[in-house]
Inverse folding.
């Protein structure tokens, strides 16, 4: 499923599509991949945070915002870590910097 994360084009009742998806499908929590940057964004209630990336280059490093242009590969280790944090509801302990998004729930 593709969702708009920041554009005004997909607002429903002044709520961004990704925030509405977190409410409808995840009880206020959603894990989203920003394909234009390879970053995983976590929405948890009225907060959002950057988790990092599950895609790494051949040296095991993230390429935030895809600036280097090197091939990226899915890291099974990072993916499993993300999955465990989702299952254990541990994003509050692992994401250090949260922002308050516009669509307070």
């Amino acid at each position: 499923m593709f969702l708009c994360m920041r554009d005004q084009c997909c607002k429903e009742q002044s709520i961004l599509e990704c925030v509405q998806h977190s409410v409808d499908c995840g009880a206020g929590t959603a894990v989203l991949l920003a394909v234009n940057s390879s970053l995983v964004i976590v929405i948890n209630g009225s907060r959002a945070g950057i988790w990092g990336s599950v895609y790494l280059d051949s040296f095991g490093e993230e390429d935030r915002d895809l600036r280097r242009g090197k091939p990226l590969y899915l890291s099974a280790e990072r993916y499993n870590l993300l999955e465990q944090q989702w299952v254990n509801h541990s994003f509050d302990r692992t994401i250090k910097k949260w922002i308050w998004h516009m669509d307070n729930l």
